[in-house]
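thought: user wants a sequence for this fold. calling inverse folding tool.
action: design(structure=
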């Protein structure tokens, strides 16, 4: 895996696993499989409707939350203070 070093010194993987258009019922298994082969950066979004599967996979995988980079997006009408 290739990494980029962020300004704070943390190394972040250059390659991430995205769950766009992954059916909610399949998301947990897909993310667990991605983690098993070495992915540590996961990209999701509220609009995808599968964030729960991502969370379930991260909770079940046995690795600490600090080992992952999790990117998510909020739909603009749900943003605010």
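)
observation: tool returned 81 residues.
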């Amino acid at each position: 895996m290739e990494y980029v070093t962020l300004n704070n010194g943390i190394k972040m993987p250059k390659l991430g696993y995205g769950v766009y258009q992954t059916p909610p019922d399949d998301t947990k298994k897909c993310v667990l499989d991605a983690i098993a082969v070495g992915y540590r950066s996961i990209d999701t979004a509220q609009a995808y409707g599968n964030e729960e599967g991502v969370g379930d996979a991260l909770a079940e995988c046995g690795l600490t939350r600090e080992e992952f980079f999790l990117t998510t997006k909020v739909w603009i009408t749900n943003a605010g203070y």
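thought: summarizing for user.
answer: Here is the designed sequence. The beta strands are 3-5, 11-13, 17-18, 41-43, 69-71.
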